[in-house]
Write a structure and sequence with these properties.
Elements lengths: L11 E13 L10 H10 L3 E4 L6 H13 L2 H5 L2 E4 L2 H9 L5 E5 H4 L5 E6 L7 E6 L8 H12 L4 H6 L13
Parallel strand pairs: 2-3, 2-4
Antiparallel strand pairs: 1-4, 1-5, 1-6
């Protein structure tokens, strides 16, 4: 909007997804309720899948930095299964190759056979916000506005939640 790429006032918050942990259905669910319990769960896991930060994946870059801050990067790195994206992380957990997986909840929640343990504790959480807007150069502003209205309609809230996307209309300063 500030650069003039979007029509002023058209930017609309869609929702956000948080970094979470997943396990294969039917396996023990670790306690990740506090930063210390998250740290212990990561150390106790036989293998952990996450996006290779070299591929540019936001959740993988964040997780590696978090592991460094927690002082467990080397220990977890030795048992890491680096993946090209969140879908592969979930696939590794589903196949039993990884005991734990870390990626965005929106990549975990829709997959049958994998259970979202939950988001990382608030003190160490990472979230990505999504927004939509009408391009200033749009040849069909009305259609773009209708599409955004459909995405943000109250009737769509359940679909967003089912996909691991929380609270539409987030306040970006709080993210």
């Amino acid at each position: 909007e500030q650069a003039g790429v979007l029509i002023a006032g058209s930017r609309t918050e869609l929702g956000r997804t948080s970094t979470g942990i997943c396990v294969r259905d039917g396996t023990p669910v670790p306690d990740i309720s506090t930063p210390e319990r998250f740290k212990q769960a990561m150390l106790a896991a036989r293998s952990v899948a996450y996006t290779d930060p070299q591929t540019g994946g936001t959740s993988g870059i964040f997780l590696v930095g978090l592991l460094v801050r927690l002082g467990i990067a080397d220990a977890v790195g030795k048992k890491a299964l680096l993946c090209i994206n969140g879908d592969e992380v979930v696939d590794k957990v589903l196949a039993g190759d990884a005991e734990l997986g870390s990626t965005f909840l929106s990549e975990i929640v829709p997959v049958k056979g994998v259970k979202a343990v939950g988001p990382l504790p608030a003190a160490i959480q990472n979230a990505t916000a999504y927004a939509a807007g009408v391009m200033a150069a749009s040849g069909n502003r009305d259609a773009a506005e209708r599409f955004i209205a459909m995405l943000t309609a109250p009737a769509q809230r359940g679909a967003w939640i089912a996909l691991g996307i929380s609270s539409q209309r987030i306040v970006t300063d709080a993210v």
